[in-house]
Amino acid sequence: MKSMRVALTHDEEALSPIHEGICRSPDLEREIILGGQAVDGVETITSFVDGDADAYEPLIDGRESVLEYDVTRTDDGFFLYLRQELGPEGLSLLNALAQETVVVVPPIEVRSDRTIRMTIVGHPAALSSVFEDLSEGVTLDVRWVSDDVTTEPSVSDRQRTALQAAWDVGFYEVPRRNGIEAVADELDCAVSTASELLRRGEATVIGRILDRGP
Fold this sequence. Notes:
With 214 residues, the protein is α+β, with helices and mostly antiparallel strands. It has 7 helices and 8 strands; from the N terminus they run E-H-E-E-H-E-E-H-E-E-H-E-H-H-H.
């Protein structure tokens, strides 16, 4: 089995109406699809949207293809439950992913830079054939391929503890409230050990943000 991280870049004409709205609005950054399913052309998803619900709701409220939705607001965005009939763009992607030995691993990112980014896992031959028949106006960029069945690089428990300690003592504040010595004191370890744990944890987290794989 292999894992593959891909970005599907859409021309403006190839964007779905909702994706186009995310791209055009300065108050919406991305929609992170956490899970869902599609049955007989009807998609049901739950997602988190980085942005203002007041900017997003006009994209779905009253749209004929939208069967049902619910919004739960948070301090930095909102959760969305959505059921909608898929248009040609969604059906094309759904058909491309309908391989017996391929699994799409959430989350799926629908981004304001006109890309959809996802990780898929499966047999190498199946992965290479998934996107052979993309819709017109959609191009594929393979971000990484791994021999491990993995989705995103993750920090170890010790690295997570170090990152949390650094956050708690103000190491990441601007200006910095405490230095690496305070982190080492919090972890009860040598300064060199604390520094290495932070560097490794930061490299993993930054690599995830920049979409670099294992």
